[in-house]
Design brief:
23% strand; disordered C terminus; alpha+beta; 3-stranded antiparallel β-sheet; 35% helix; 5 helices; 165 residues
């Protein structure tokens, strides 16, 4: 298990974030049956205003491994290099974002994206959320998950006991 550090975005991160997003986004869309909706980060970032969000980067052993982008009330982007999945990078990004966000917090998960849903449920987001139609003409369904009030405390306890995030 490597060391995970979360920090702000640096311009030098851009090529690595593009590679992370493009691989992880294709996996996400494949799980939802929406491969045709793929846009590379070089296009999606401009269309969806990535740099209007707070952008944080996770490093695993000194290499960018994932990123999150959020507003005070929405965790809008969360991508982890698929080759580095299940090593605590996503959880560390969620924890970092929640520490900086106001309440209530919302996220949306494409229906069929079991790995993302499992991550958010494991971080304390309740599983019941509303079902919403996807934006931008996508045929998928989004699952809207409300704020994890108890989950944040559980994450803090895990970290405080030296657990993996």
């Amino acid at each position: 298990m490597g060391l995970i550090a979360i920090r702000g975005f640096r311009e030098a991160d851009w090529p690595r974030l593009q590679a992370i997003h493009d691989a992880a986004r294709m996996d996400e869309l494949r799980l939802a049956g929406l491969e045709g909706a793929f846009l590379p980060l070089s296009v999606a970032a401009q269309r969806e205003g990535l740099f209007e969000y707070t952008l944080r980067v996770a490093e695993l052993d000194g290499t960018a491994a994932g990123f999150a982008a959020f507003t005070p009330d929405e965790l809008a982007w969360l991508y982890v290099d698929p080759a580095l999945a299940r090593r605590g990078v996503g959880r560390a990004l969620v924890e970092d974002a929640l520490e900086r966000m106001e309440r209530p917090v919302s996220i949306e998960v494409l229906e069929g994206n079991g790995p993302a849903l499992a991550l958010y449920l494991g971080c304390g987001f309740p599983g019941g959320g509303d079902r919403l139609r996807a934006d931008a003409g996508q045929r998928g369904v989004l699952r809207h998950l409300p704020c994890p009030t108890a989950g944040l405390n559980r994450l803090r306890e895990t970290v405080g006991k030296g657990g993996r995030i």
